[in-house]
Amino acid sequence: MDASANAPQVTNAAFSRIGEIIAAEGADKALRVSVLGGGCSGFQYKFELETPDARAEDDVALEQDGVTVLIDAVSLPFLSGAVIDFKRELIGSRFAVENPNASSTCGCGTSFSV
Fold first, then answer.
1. What's the chain's average pLDDT?
2. What is the per-residue pLDDT across 105-114, written as a single tens digit (0 to 9) for each?
3. Number of domains in the chain
4. Which residues, at least 6 apart from 93, have a Cβ–Cβ distance to it below 8 Å?
5. In this structure, is residue 70 part of a structural domain?
6. Which residues have a Cβ under 8 Å from the Cβ of 91 and sit 6 or more positions away?
7. Which domain holds residue 39?
8. In DSSP terms, which residues pair with 97 in a beta bridge?
9. What is the reported pLDDT for 39?
10. SS3 for 86?
């Protein structure tokens, strides 16, 4: 499935960092971003590397410079209009999701409610 207008955006910084991680792994991988029930605010983001054959027919694939981010059909509505970024801060580096659908987030930034 092609990325739609409501699909999340992935920043250049995030694509670059994903590419670095995949290169270090030495294998053909894609980053899957999904939303799961749980966390301190009700939902949480999950980031995991998968082989390209794990791609489902209804996944949205966002691609840049040979790097792929996959989002499953169940998670897509929760991530509609979101921006997936990679942030380097004094306290550490992390993937971050700026999500307009989240009514609140927890302090760690990986859990949210709608």
1. 84
2. 655 555 445 5
3. 1
4. 17, 86, 87
5. yes
6. none
7. 9-103
8. 84
9. 59
10. strand
